[in-house]
Amino acid sequence: MSEYVAPLQDMQFVLRELAGLDTVASLPGQEEVNEELAAAILEEAGKFAAGVLSPLNGVGDREGAHWSEGNVRTATGWREAYRQFAEGGWNALSCPTPVCGQGLPRVISALVEEMWNGANVAFALCPMLTRGAIEALELCGTQQQKALYLPRLISGEWTGTMNLTEPQAGSDLSAVRTRAVPQADGSSGSTARRSSSPTASTT
């Protein structure tokens, strides 16, 4: 089984020549960002991706996750890998500094997240959903919600999740079909159905 090797030179080229890291570094709050810092972050992320996440693919496939006595049991090594991930501050890279984030530009954290996906996409889904929850709270959360959730999500103590509203599809996203339906009051409702089913269920 081949192991993941991060394309660090390509990523650094993208930052320097295509993404305009110098321009990003001129923005307010990004004064400490430079090529050297970005290279160090990418190098460490590459080590974690190759040394910790990539080797978990096989054991994850063989053992999977299991529900046992009210708890989810992950495959051997996954819990420890997530603990290292959280303690390493990887969840916090581009999160705002007032709520325990590191405040780095998204262009850097996007490359790091690409490493997680390249090394072990199953593992990467957890921080991906957490990042989505963080962004939703940043944009739309109340101050009370932000104070309660953001520090714990950013630290990795808590994680985000995805909740589907299509009970007929379960986890099979390819089976979901949606469309807007005009309502009598002028608003639009939505319906969802399996592609193989002729009936639609309102959600």
How would a crystallographer describe the biggest sheet?
A: 3 strands, antiparallel
- The order of strands across the largest sheet is 3-4-5
The ordered string of helix (H) and strand (E) elements is HHHHEEHHHHEEE
Number of strands: 5
Strand pairing plus helix content: what structural class? mainly alpha
The averaged pLDDT comes out at 85
The rounded Rg comes to 20 Å
Count of alpha and pi helical runs: 8
Explain what the structure shows.
The protein is mainly alpha-helical. It is built from eight helices and five strands, in the order ααααββααααβββ. It has helices spanning 8-18, 21-25, 35-53, 56-63, 78-87, 106-119, 121-140, 143-155; strands at residues 66-68, 71-73, 177-182, 188-193, 201-202. The strands form two sheets. The chain has a three-stranded antiparallel β-sheet with strand order 3-4-5, with no helix packed on it. A hairpin with a 7-residue loop joins β4 (188-193) and β5. α1 (8-18) packs antiparallel against α3 and α6 runs antiparallel to α7 (121-140). The longest helix has 20 residues, at 121-140. Mean pLDDT is 85; it is low at 192-203.
